[in-house]
Task: inverse folding
């Protein structure tokens, strides 16, 4: 079974990337250097990893805030943004979205001594998304048409008693509870009946599963060339900046992890696949950013050609590191280091072997 999977991974990696290399859209060799970050706060831990991969530039961005400002110190916020046609919008989303949300009237009315109104929080998140989109529209480089970038956005707002998921586009977040996927956001694709209806009412069409044959998502921040009808409100344009918001009651005894990732991850892994992988690896690695690193390497070897970013948030009930499994992994790493130092004199050969090793190890873990 593993041999078949490995063969499929190798062949899909070669075949799917060949055309894009010829077109100049991808690099000859993937950029596998990673940005890592980790932290603790509000009785949770997080780790994140991002990698450029095969793409000619890095357009992903992220945000991780364990403690919100002001009266919301026991609230946390995490987000992933997948940019396209440039990195400007995704980078501004990472730095400005939370500010836009907490600056809404709904959030200013929150009294830390009283139970917050769930509908008001949902409305505040929605208004924050719309406010950011409008603010970006007026930036000189965007208003002039010089920059035409856009970005998906998926975020989680964690309060003492609730988890708010907000999604706009095809990046995805999921909650792992009691060892299985309890919830996952829905990707906003043009072929979805509700999305397709809005696109057609706005005068557009869905061709080869894309808006007007071009954009592969039906909701995003930015992408103002798809938001030009002045007779329509923002939420009824070809591309909508409105997030889909879901609120879930926290179950503090059984909520284990939340993962947020761009479509470079989900293109090659199902929700259940990633859930199994993460539950296994957190028993061997105490650094959550390294768990994300391994998942990204695994996806790269399986054939993902996109930028990849992942944020992993762990609550107290998440599986703890098993000392025997950790020691087993560390011993295996030592053997691998000795092998690679003596066998692979060229960096690109070493990188490919490490990807193969990651793929093999994580594939075996799922058997």
Result:
């Amino acid at each position: 079974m593993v041999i078949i999977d490995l063969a499929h991974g190798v062949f899909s990696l070669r075949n799917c990337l060949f055309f894009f290399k010829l077109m100049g859209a991808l690099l000859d060799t993937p950029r596998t250097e990673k940005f890592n970050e980790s932290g603790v706060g509000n009785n949770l831990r997080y780790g994140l990893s991002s990698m450029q991969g095969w793409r000619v530039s890095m357009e992903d961005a992220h945000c991780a805030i364990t403690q919100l400002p002001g009266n919301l110190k026991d609230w946390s916020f995490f987000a992933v943004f997948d940019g396209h046609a440039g990195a400007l919008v995704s980078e501004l989303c990472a730095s400005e979205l939370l500010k836009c949300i907490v600056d809404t009237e709904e959030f200013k009315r929150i009294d830390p001594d009283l139970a917050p109104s769930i509908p008001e929080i949902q409305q505040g998140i929605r208004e924050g998304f719309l406010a950011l989109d409008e603010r970006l529209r007026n930036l000189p480089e965007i208003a002039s048409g010089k920059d035409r970038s856009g970005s998906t956005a998926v975020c989680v707002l964690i309060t003492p008693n609730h988890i708010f998921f907000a999604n706009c586009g095809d990046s995805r977040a999921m909650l792992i509870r009691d060892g299985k996927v309890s919830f996952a956001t829905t990707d906003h694709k043009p072929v979805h009946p509700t999305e397709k209806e809005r696109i057609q009412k706005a005068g557009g069409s869905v061709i080869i599963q894309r808006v007007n044959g071009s954009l592969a998502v039906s909701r995003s921040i930015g992408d103002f060339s798809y938001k030009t009808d002045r007779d329509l409100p923002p939420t009824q344009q070809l591309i909508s900046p409105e997030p889909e918001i879901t609120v879930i009651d926290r179950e503090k005894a059984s909520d284990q992890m939340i993962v947020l990732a761009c479509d470079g991850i989900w293109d090659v892994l199902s929700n259940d696949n990633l859930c199994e992988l993460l539950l296994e690896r957190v028993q061997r690695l105490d650094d959550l950013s390294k768990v994300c690193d391994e998942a990204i390497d695994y996806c790269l070897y399986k054939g993902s050609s996109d930028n990849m970013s992942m944020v992993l948030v762990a609550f107290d009930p998440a599986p703890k590191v098993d000392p025997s499994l950790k020691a087993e992994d560390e011993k295996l790493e030592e053997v691998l280091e000795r092998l690679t130092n003596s066998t692979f004199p060229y960096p690109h050969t070493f990188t490919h072997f490490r990807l193969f090793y990651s793929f093999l190890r994580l594939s075996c873990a799922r058997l």
